[in-house]
Amino acid sequence: METxxxxxxxxxxxxxxxxxxxGTTPADGVWMIEPRxxxxxxxxxxNVSLWILPAxxxxxTLDEYSFTLMNATCGDTPxxxxxxxxxxxxxxxxxxxxxLNVNAQGCDDESFDLFTAFVLDETTPAPHxxxxxxxxxxxxxxxxxxxxxxxxxxxDIPYQEGEPIxxxxxxxxxxxxxxxxxxxxxSATTVRISMVRQVSAGSPSEIDICESEILAGVFDADIxxxxxxxxxxxxxxxxxxxxxxxxxxxxxxDQDSFINLRTIYEDFVxxxxxxxxxxxxxxxxxxxxxxxxxVCSDDKATISFTFYEQLRPFxxxxxxxxxxxxxxxxxxxxxxxxxxxxxxxxxxxxVDFVYDSDSYTNWRRVSGPGTxxxxxxxxxxxxxxxxxxxxxxxxxTINTLNATPGTYVFEYLVSPKINCQDSADETCNPxxxxxxxxxCEHPCAVESALVTIEILAFDxxxxxxxxxxxxxxxxxxxxxxxxxxxxxxxxxxxxxxxDSSGGAINNTFVFPDxxxxxxxxxxYTTNRNGxxxxxxxxxxxxxxxxxxxxxxxxxxxxxxxxxxxxxLGGTPDTTGEWTGPFGYxxxxxxxGIFIEGDDDLFILxxxxxxxxxxxxxxxxxxxxxTVMVNFVDPVAIGDDINETFCKxxxxxxxxxxxxxxxxxxxxxxxxxxxGALSPDGTVDFQTLESRIYTFRYVVNAEEPCGExxxxxxxxxxxxxxxxxxxxxxxxxxxxxxxxIVVDVSNYSWYASLESETPILDNPLLLDNQTYYIxxxxxxxxxxxxxxxxxxxxxxxxxxxxxxGELCTLDFQDGVSPNGDNxxxxxxxxxxxxxxxxxxxxxxxxxxxxxxxxxxxxxxKDTEEFRGESNTSVRLGDDLPSGTYFYxxxxxFQNNQPIQGSFYLSR
Length: 906
Fold this sequence. Notes:
Elements: E1 15-17, H1 18-22, E2 30-33, E3 41-42, E4 47-49, E5 66-70, E6 80-83, E7 104-107, E8 112-113, E9 132-135, E10 142-146, E11 149-155, E12 168-178, E13 186-196, E14 203-204, E15 206-210, H2 211-215, E16 223-224, E17 231-232, E18 239-241, E19 258-259, H3 261-270, E20 280-289, E21 299-308, E22 314-315, E23 322-324, E24 332-333, E25 339-344, E26 350-353, E27 361-367, E28 397-398, E29 406-414, E30 447-456, E31 465-471, E32 476-478, E33 496-498, E34 504-505, E35 508-510, E36 518-528, E37 531-542, E38 551-556, E39 562-563, E40 577-580, E41 584-585, E42 593-594, E43 607-613, E44 623-632, E45 641-646, E46 651-653, E47 667-669, E48 682-684, E49 692-699, E50 708-717, E51 727-730, E52 747-750, E53 770-775, E54 788-795, E55 814-815, E56 829-830, E57 834-835, H4 836-839, E58 844-848, E59 854-858, E60 882-889, E61 898-904
Parallel strand pairs: 7-13, 15-21, 23-30, 31-37, 38-44, 45-50, 51-54, 55-61
Antiparallel strand pairs: 1-4, 2-5, 3-4, 5-6, 8-11, 9-12, 10-11, 12-13, 14-17, 16-19, 18-20, 20-21, 22-25, 24-28, 25-26, 27-29, 29-30, 32-35, 33-34, 33-36, 36-37, 39-42, 40-41, 40-43, 43-44, 46-48, 47-49, 49-50, 52-53, 53-54, 56-57, 58-59, 58-60, 60-61
Pfam family, one: CHU_C
Organism: Aquimarina algicola
Protein name: Gliding motility-associated C-terminal domain-containing protein
C-alpha cells in the first residue's frame, strides 16, 4: 500500500477504487464497510484510503476488511462481497544523526514513545498498529517496555560526575509487523534511540525548629546546606544556589551554601523588636541544576526552615479561690483564674501571650473528692468515646453549685500548634490519644498549668416551700417540719427563722387570732464556713368555713330578680355554693343570682335555698346556711297595648282599649305631658302630631308588690292636606282627572266633600266642575287628610287663560299625499296631543281652493283629506298642488271657528 499512486501525480497516496478493482459500476449499487473503518471508504465514488486502515491482515480467514455492494433490487442481500488482504507495513524510520547514529532522542524522566522515531507526513503512511517491538541489546539501564503502552520504553541513566555531559546511552529496537499470503510474511523497521539522563537538584528537607532550641544555642554555628541532612542526592555538575531568591541575605553568591540560623532568627525577631508573637515563619533556600540537552529540563530543589514560636508559661496566682457549695454563682470559667505571661519588645511595647483557642487547648480534672467522673460539668476536647467534643471551649466552664466539698485540681494544656495553626500536619490525627500525643509531632513542647479551687461545705436549710395550708384550730406548728427537702439532705437545726420584716421568730409558731385567712412568709437561714443559705416558707392559716346566718324574704312574683348571698346574715365566706328547688345549683358562684327575663339563668322559685361553704385547704369541716324565699302575686292587668289611629278620627277613650279581664280601678297617666289626656281616660287627637305616644294604666297592689302598670302606645297618623290649585285647561287638551298634577304620592279624588267612595275611573274634565282631593298614608290604616276642593275651568277656543295663553291649535301647514307616511293627510290628531274628534265630536271642517270653491267637507265619520275632493263639484278628483284654505267649526258650546291655510304638494 505504501507504493500505490491512485492519482498518478508521482507521490504515493495508498488509494484504490472498489468499482475498478471488481469490475462494477455505481449503477450496481453502493459500497459499504464495517462502521469502525467507515472513514477509510468514500461511498460516493468507491475510493478506499488504505493508509487509514490501522492493521495488516494476518489470516486469509479473517473478514477484517470486508466490503459489500448493496442495491435496492437485492435488498438486504449483498450484490457483491469483497475481502481485502492488506500487506504488512512497519513504517519508515527518521534519518539517523549525531555521534550515536540515532533516529530520535528522549529524556529518562518519563517513558519514551518509539513511534516518534518514524517519518509521519502526507506522503508517508503510519506503520500498522498490530506489530511487535523488540529490544536489540542487554544494557542494565534498560528498565523495560511500559506495561500500559508497549510502544513506550522506560530507562534509567545513572549519574556520572564530570564529563561527558550529558549522561546518555543509545538503545536499538525493531518493530515487526506480520502479514499473510499472497503478501510478504513480515515487515520490520529498526530504530536507534538516545536516552538522556534528567539532571537532579536532589531531595530537600523541611526542617522544623522550635524557638527554644535557637535560644538554647543549638543553631549558633554556620551550617552547610549541601550537607545530606538538608539536601541529598544532588548533581554537582552545573549546580548553583539561587542567591537572588534568599530573603535573609545569607547566600552571598550562587556557589555559597553556608547560612547561620541564629542570625536569621535574631534578624527576624530581635532586630526590630516587633515579632515576639510571630507564630511561625518559613525561610527557603533553593538549589538548581541546569540541563544541557534539548530533551530534558532544569531542576530545582528548595530547602525550608520553619521557626515556631515557643509557648510562654502561665499559672494560677495564689491563693486558690474558695467557693461555697451552695453558691449559685452561675457558671465558673477556670480560664479566668489563669495569669498569662506579658513580655516587652525592644521598642518598649507590651505583648501578651494569652492562649484562648477552642481547637488547640484542653482541660482535664487532675484530682478532687468523689469519683473520677466528678468533673463539675467540665468538658474536655475529647469526649469519653474518643471523639471530638463539639461543645468544648477553652473557658473550662464548671458549676460549683451543690458540688461535693473539698479541693479540686484541674489542668489546662496548650498545644504549640496554637501559634501556627496552618502548619498542622494533615497526615497526623489531631484527635489521637493518649493526651501526650494529642497534638501530634511538633518541635515545641506542650505547655500546661494547674488550677486549684476549694469547695466549702454548708448547712442545708431545706428547699423553698409554698402553698402550706393550716387551720386556725391547730393553734401552732413546728416550722422546720413544713420545709420540703431534696430527698437526700436533712434540714439543719442551726438555722434562724425571720419573718417578712426581718424579725426573729421561734421555730414553734403560735397562730395569732384572726377572722380571715392570713398568709405568712418566713425565711430559714443557715451559716457555716461563711456559706450562707436560706429557704423560704409560705404558709396560709385558714379560718374555719362560715356560711353566715339563715334568712327569709317575701318578694313579688312578677319581679324575680334576687341575689341570695346579700340576704345572709353575719360575715359569710365567698367560697360557697347554692342549691335549691327544682335542682337549682349556682355551680361555683357564691352569689346565687336570679335576674327576671334573663333566659341564661335559673328562674327564681319559692322554697328553701341552702348555702354550703366547703372545707378549705386548711380546715376539713364545712358549714351551711338557709334562705327561705316566699312569693306574693301582683295584680294582673294584661300586657302592653299598641294601637294606631288617624288624627282625623278625633279621639279615643283608653278604657275601651283594655282587655275585658283588666280591672277598671286604675288610673291613666300621661308620662309625656301631652295635655291630650282627660281625667276620664279620653285622648283628644287634635293637638297631637304624627308619631307614637305612650300612656300608662296604673293599678295599686299589695306589698311587697308595687303598682301594676301597662303601657298603651298610640301611633297617631296625621296626613297633611295636599296643595293642588284650581285647574284651568283648554278644551282642545281634552284632559281627564288623572292629568291633574298632585304634589303627593298617595291620594284619592272624591265627587263631593261628604262622598265616602273615591272616584275610580278617569273622567273627562268639564267646565265649572269641582272635585275634592285627600292625601292618604298608602298603608293598611287608610288614614286621609282633610279634603281640598279643586275647581275646574275649561276654556273654549278663542278664549285666553289667566296667564294669557290663547286656547287654539295650529293645524299642519302642508299636505303631501305621496305615501311616505309624512303629512299624507290633513290630520285631526295633532302632535299626538289633540284628538279633535274626541274633543269636538260634532265638528265641521271645510277646505276651499284659492278661488273660494269648497273642495272638501269633513266630519267625525269622514275620511281625512288626502288631496282628493269629496264634494259634488270635483268628486274624487286629485286636486292640483297649491295653497288651500280651511275653516274648522267645533260646534260645541261657545267655541269659535278656527281658520288657516296649507299647501298641497304633489
